[in-house]
Sequence to fold (235 residues):
Amino acid sequence: MLVCDHISVFYGAVQALDSINLRVAEGECVALLGPNGAGKTTLLRAISGLTRQRGGVVTLNGKAIDAMRPELRVRAGLGHVPERRRIFPGLTVLENLEVGAVNWRGFRQSLDADLANVLALFPRLKERAGQRGWSLSGGEQQMLAIGRALMARPRVLLLDEPSLGLAPLIAEEVYERLTEIRRMGVTILVVEQNTAIALAVASRAYVLENGKIAIEGAADELADHPRIREAYLGR
Fold:
């Protein structure tokens, strides 16, 4: 479904990603773990076209998307929920969701149905449909950011630190919704510093360190990996 082949990214003379190979099969939830500054966000931005790669190929559903502008990657089936949500604070919940639908070719015909589906998935958003984005709690804003991405009907959803700044119970609620989204047929690649919650939901995981893949494997195996337990799980 999503394949990164030898992806390299530079910021000036500094190499942020060094020949990254990563694969996410259809229907999987794959976690991308690692410390701050490891290159996790850079990899998501390279996949979605927000950061230019210097080498390698990104393939979505068997088609290279490297030459596509970010909005065309969305139309090809890629959704991206950025770090710190980036909702439009002056727009209402409904307006934020409608903005997310613009890149979907058939959005005018399916808008009402897609809104209904997202609001059913996130009942809190339905209750606050007329509120401005700035008035929502952090957890509600994260739900709104995910819902906005879903409005474009992605086949693959990229999420950058969805639990960042959230209370543990709210983070668990967000991840419960991600599990539901996966059951709906959406493939997920999630960047997360909360290693425990990510490994509990993901089927496989990669650990990125200093711009390189350091460890990869099944999520349950990584949860018991001595290096992961010591460095990321505090055991």
Notes: The mean pLDDT is 91. The longest strand covers residues 14-24.
